[in-house]
Specification:
heterotrimer, A alpha/beta (368), B alpha/beta (506), C mainly alpha (335), A: 368 residues, alpha/beta, Rossmann fold, 2 domains, seven-stranded mixed β-sheet, 17% strand, B: 506 residues, six-stranded mixed β-sheet, 22 strands, globular
Chain lengths: 368, 506, 335
């Protein structure tokens, strides 16, 4: 019996295994490498619509500069996912990698590993301690201050402010938050200052920062925290969402509580709902980055480096992509720009959208 | 009534059913006419329950024919059996305790009105049926609130609700009180007079004598003989059931009682906290505990084995008082239990004979740091397999595939390996064939001879009568009497078991 | 054993298919990474196996990992305690967690699912609260000694000259040692036998004089201790700990590895080799998906499908075996 049994087991096993093998090979069949093109990778720090614009930019640049780009977005266990994705890409052999590190301070080992094996640049969130060749992104501290300016405009007589952000581990969100706090407190610019979120209220002359809430990219939690804040503070003056998905949840919460106008909202990034909110005057304004350009510029720089052209890197190794303030008066214009971007990109035109020609090497407006 | 009424309504002819490892039924036949009560008797494992499951459409026969009204029927599902007018009332009740009486009676075939259950109709019809079986409860009563006897009547009412022409009752009185039993007998007689055919399976030969128009006896999965109404008497039935004279079957030799091995004083179990139990069992002695199901016999054994903690009282083993908080305590005091529910509590079905026999003795096979002495274990297990004549291909056979009798021997083997002073057996021969039964009796006798004190619970009258040196009878948690060998009779036991204290002997 | 052969077969086919699909797959660098990941997940898989063998489940593993990983830097860096004290504290914590689970399950007869589900939420909440969601890091000098645990074997004392040691992660060595100890415990000691027996039929085991409660508590303690240790390794490897997400879903990966490796969630069954292979297969699949350029988004689906296939094949084989046995016995009886 046992011989026959094992034979059947064997047959079952072989059939199943062969299927898996075929599936694997089948899936990979159309993606075999084109060895002539340099291969570069673009790693985000999460999954968001923001990164979809960046992906578009990266792909447009890949076409324009004739490289093969692999865009990967880590899930909720972002540190682990980034490590695995980077290692797997390195194992495959690539000519350059742009990464937005989740926690640059503690991902030193990984960044060193990447820098040792390929050309490393950072985007969106910098890791100045690492051996990265270049940083592409905005100055988050400056952007934070721009955001603070919007809060001041929305609430000129002063009041209390709540901040909502995905994580505070990464430098970009920390700087963004700090810039905003410093602007509201009217402090001198100092990127090294850091107010612990656990320290409680921060009181200035006119403005009070009540609290900072993090949600770890858990959207359910992001929404609940916005609702809880509206419920908890009667006299809440302004809610600021620092990550792309925060403002829409804040808007929902304020709208549900029927406190539109009473609680001001200031956004960050360009979620469609945020923009509509600005158009409807429910949100005062937003500070937008240019994710398309992060992707585009990252791939352009990596393509240059892969072909031995080191001139793509500016002297200070930082390529600032300036942020912009969007208010009700220029929101239509900005939306049109975004529409053009996505439609042109999806139509696969050869002409790069003009949005990306404006600032490739120029410094950020407010950078000192 | 006309002549055709005497033609058999249900005929079973040459039915054979095999299970892995055992032929449960070997070309058995029986027949029952309209308005006839046929008693089907036989020892446990004789194949009665298997045949009943076949008739109820739960299992399918390997060979043979079943005819209803002279037509061959194929009973391949419960529905088709019901359609043929056959209904089975199970030994274990099949009611959903959380639903009402009416809901249970119409479970699976609820009349609908506008797509919803027609509660009104159900209640009405249920009330009628309850009246027919003489059960005076509201159809809305939740079944859990009924006594076992009342639940039995609900089952019967349910069978009647499907217009059953043949009603199979599998040990209907095994859990009933005397009063409930009498009530049930009335219901059966009433049904017979209405032309319902009844196959009545029972161990209670007294009931059989009172009710049956005819008796069919099974032994070892075969027909052992039939008795007509005027031939029915106790001795004939027993002889057909066991296949020889009782004295030969129950291998009991006289024992000289030794020192007190087990002494129970003022013991109250948590299931019957009002009843105080006092008794002793000596070495070399076999003491039977008789009583109805639910009399608290199993609970008593569980207290003695430390499964349930006693509410109060003391237990002494070999003259030393012991605290029994877990089976481990009991085992270390020298007590072993062969539980009633073998497959749940006695063995681990999915594991090998060796693992099972070795389980209780593992501590003795321990080497340093808890490592298993596998060589020693293997030798002990091999000895035990030989000593108990366990029929198994090898020690690695999974116990699931052994017959009930051999599984029971595995349970016994597990305990003999640790040489207990007191052996508790709960329904030791339930569900095993006659051959294995005899071996277990022989083993009990042999152990008693060696000085083990044996306390066994049995619902089989013949077993109590055949094996015990002394019998304790329990009723509703208390010991209602003690019968010495020469006082022992079925009538005496039944009177004590049903709580007629005035008849206490000794 | 047969089941282990099946999963080993799948492992080999995926391995070979990936090696053919991408020549970089077999590089020492990739093999090292793969071995390290498989080892880390294998270790927590072994932990949960003890619990699964008793017929229980531990859903709190991921949160416990998150808590342990968060607490160590908190104790050592924020509270400036010595590293040794920090380590003792996190292991003591793991032990207490296991003990609590076991006692609640055996004494109060709560269901393991419920107890550990609550654990999942409680430990996560505590981890986040203790450090106010602040990202914790293992970049500090203090931890550099511990980092040997997630390095390669040439960093071990006396191994620096050995040529292959550079290509073998220390975590793999840990997995092997833990695997051998667990295997011996399960198969060669009476306690292992007790665990298997009570996992199959707790009542019968108790009726055989086994202190089943004690053994169940022991299983949960072992599971939590190994989880805590695994959490330390993961933390050292990734370096950066987000208290709100670190370790999320690890319990499910561990349980999936155990199931792939032949553990029955009904209890009483399980082989350590199988669990290690199960964990390895999952990590290999993730690597293959990346190596072969299959869309990253499909990854969870592919893993889910492979586990499902494995379980289905196992069930079919079992049924087939049961039927054959029945036929054979019927024939023997008939003859």
């Amino acid at each position: 019996m046992s011989t026959k049994l094992s034979r059947v087991c064997g047959v079952c096993g072989i059939v199943g295994i062969t299927c898996i093998g075929l599936i694997l090979v089948g899936c990979s069949g159309n993606r075999t490498e084109e060895s002539s093109q340099p291969k570069v990778a673009y790693i985000t720090n999460g999954i968001a619509s923001f990164w979809n614009y960046a992906e578009r930019g990266a792909k447009d640049a890949a076409e324009e500069f004739d490289v093969n780009v692999n865009v990967q977005m880590p899930g909720t266990n972002a540190v682990e996912d980034q490590k695995r994705m980077c290692q797997d890409l390195l194992a495959q052999g690539i000519d350059g990698m742009a990464i937005s590190p989740v926690d640059p301070d503690n991902q030193g080992d990984l960044l060193a590993e990447i820098a040792q094996r390929t050309r490393l640049i950072t985007h969106d969130s910098d890791a100045p301690e690492s051996d990265r060749l270049c940083y592409i992104g905005m100055n988050n501290y400056t952007a934070g201050r721009m955001c603070g300016q919007l809060v001041k405009e929305a609430m000129p007589e002063g009041g209390s402010v709540m901040i909502f952000v995905g994580r505070l581990g990464q430098a970009n969100s920390r700087l963004r938050r700090q810039g905003m706090i410093d602007e509201l407190m009217d402090r001198e610019p100092d990127e090294n200052r850091y107010d612990e979120p656990s320290a409680g209220e921060i009181k200035g002359e006119k403005y009070t920062i009540l609290d900072t809430r993090t949600d770890g990219f858990d959207f359910g939690k992001a929404k609940a925290q916005a609702q809880d804040a509206v419920a908890k503070y009667d006299d809440l003056g302004c809610m600021v969402g620092l990550f792309v998905y925060n403002p829409p949840f804040i808007l929902d919460a304020v709208r549900e509580a029927d406190k539109l106008g009473k609680i001001k909202i200031v956004a960050f990034d360009e979620d469609e709902k945020s923009l509509q909110g600005i158009k409807d005057k429910e949100i005062y304004g937003t500070v937008v980055q240019n994710p398309y350009k992060y992707g585009y510029e990252s791939v352009r720089v990596l393509a240059g480096l892969a072909r031995g052209d080191n001139s793509v890197i500016p002297e200070n190794k930082i390529l600032y992509i300036p942020a912009r303030q969007i208010r009700n008066d220029n929101v239509d214009e900005f939306r049109a720009e975004l529409d053009r971007l996505s439609s042109e990109a999806s139509a696969d035109t050869d002409n790069p959208p003009d949005a990306k020609n404006d600032a490739s090497t120029e410094k950020s407006v407010t950078e000192s | 009534m006309n002549a055709s009424d005497n033609a058999p309504l249900l005929v079973v002819e040459g039915v054979t059913k095999r299970f892995p490892g055992v032929t449960a039924l070997d070309k058995v036949s029986l027949s029952v006419s309209k308005g006839e009560v046929l008693a089907l008797i036989g020892e446990n494992g004789a194949g009665k329950s298997t045949l009943m499951k076949i008739l109820a459409g739960v299992q399918r026969p390997d060979e043979g024919a079943i005819r209803v009204d002279g037509r061959d029927v194929s009973l391949d599902s419960v529905q088709s059996a019901q359609a043929s007018g056959i209904a089975l009332i199970h030994q274990e009740l099949n009611l959903s305790g959380n639903l009402s009486v009416a809901a249970n009676m119409f479970l699976g075939r609820e009349p609908l009105r506008f797509g919803l259950i027609d509660t009104h109709k159900i209640q009405q019809e249920a009330a009628l049926l309850l009246e027919r079986v003489g059960l005076d409860v509201s159809p809305e009563t939740i079944v859990d609130a009924l006594s076992i006897g009342q639940q039995q009547l609900v089952e019967i009412a349910r069978a009647l609700s499907v217009d059953a022409r043949v009603l199979i009752m599998d040990e209907p009185t095994s859990s009933l009180s005397q009063h409930e039993t009498e009530r049930l007998m009335e219901v059966v007689k009433d049904l017979r007079s209405r032309g319902v055919s009844i196959i009545y399976i029972s161990h209670r030969l007294g009931e059989v004598k009172e009710l049956a128009d005819r008796v069919t006896v099974f032994r070892d999965g075969k027909n052992a003989g039939d008795l007509q109404r005027d031939e029915i008497n106790h001795d004939r039935m027993v002889r057909l059931m066991v296949g020889r004279d009782i004295s030969q079957f129950y291998a009991r030799t006289p024992h000289q009682p030794g020192d007190i091995a087990l002494e129970v004083q003022g013991l109250r179990s948590s299931s019957h906290p009002a009843c105080e139990l006092n008794f002793r069992v000596r070495a070399h002695e076999i003491v039977g505990i008789a009583g109805l199901v639910g009399a608290g016999r199993t609970e008593l054994l569980e207290v003695l084995f430390g499964v349930e903690e006693a509410a109060s009282g003391t237990v002494s083993i070999g003259g030393r008082e012991v605290a029994l908080r877990s089976p481990l305590d009991a085992i270390q005091a020298g007590v072993a239990l062969v539980p009633e529910n073998r497959k749940q509590q006695g063995i681990i079905l999915e594991m090998s004979v060796r693992t099972n026999i070795g389980l209780a003795g593992l501590r003795q096979h321990r080497k340093k740091a808890g490592f298993l002495n596998q060589g020693q274990e293997a030798r002990d297990v091999a000895t035990m397999i030989e000593r108990l004549r366990i029929k198994t291909p090898d020690e690695h056979q999974v116990t699931q595939y052994l017959s009930g009798g051999n599984q029971q021997k595995v349970v016994l083997g597990k305990w003999l390996a640790i040489e207990p002073k007191v052996l508790l057996l709960d329904e030791p021969t339930r569900g095993i064939d006659v051959g294995a039964k005899q071996e277990i009796y022989r083993l009990m006798d042999e152990l008693a001879k060696k000085g083990v004190a044996i306390l066994f619970v049995s619902s089989e009258m013949e077993e109590i009568l055949g094996m015990s040196d002394r019998t304790l009878v329990m009723h509703e948690g208390r010991i209602t009497g003690e019968l010495l060998r020469d006082q022992l009779s079925e009538e005496a036991v039944m009177q004590l078991a049903t709580g007629r204290l005035e008849a206490v002997a000794s | 054993m047969k089941k282990n052969l099946g999963i080993l077969g799948i492992l080999l086919v995926v391995f070979v298919a990936t090696a053919i699909g991408n020549s970089n797959f077999l590089t020492a660098y990739n093999m090292f990474n793969l071995l390290e990941r498989a080892s880390l997940y294998g270790i927590i898989g072994i932990g949960v196996a003890f619990v699964i063998i008793t017929g229980g489940i531990d859903l709190s593993i991921g949160s416990l990992i998150g808590l342990v990983a968060t607490l160590l830097p908190f104790l050592v860096l924020d509270l400036s305690l010595p590293l040794a004290v920090g380590l003792i504290a996190i292991f003591a914590l793991s032990l207490c967690v296991g003990l609590t689970h076991g006692v609640l399950i055996t004494r109060l007869k709560l269901q393991p699912f419920v107890v550990t589900l609550c654990g999942l939420m409680i430990y996560r909440g505590i981890a986040r609260w203790v450090v106010s969601d602040k990202t914790m890091g293992y970049g500090n000098e203090v931890f550099s000694g511990l980092k040997v645990l997630v390095g390669n074997m040439s960093q071990l004392p006396g191994m620096s000259g050995v040529s292959w040691a550079k290509h073998v992660p220390v975590a793999f060595l840990i997995l092997l040692v833990l695997g051998v100890i667990s295997s011996v415990f399960l198969n060669k000691t009476i306690y292992g036998r007790y665990l298997l027996a009570l996992g199959r039929n707790e009542q019968a085991a108790r009726f055989s004089g086994i202190n089943t409660s004690l053994m169940i508590v022991l299983a949960y303690v072992i599971c939590s201790l190994i989880s805590g240790f695994g959490g330390l390794l993961f933390a050292l490897d990734y370096g950066s700990i987000q208290p709100d997400s670190f370790g999320n879903f690890y319990e499910l990966y561990a349980i999936a590895a155990a199931v792939l490796g032949g553990c029955s969630l009904r209890g009483g069954e399980g082989s350590i080799v199988g669990i290690i292979l199960g964990a390895a297969l999952m990590r290999l699949l993730m690597n293959s998906i990346s190596m072969l350029g299959i869309d990253d988004q499909l990854e969870p689906a592919v893993i889910g499908i492979v586990i499902l296939l494995g379980v289905i094949v196992d069930e079919l084989v079992k049924r087939f075996a049961a039927r054959r046995r029945a036929i054979k016995q019927a024939r023997e009886v008939g003859a």
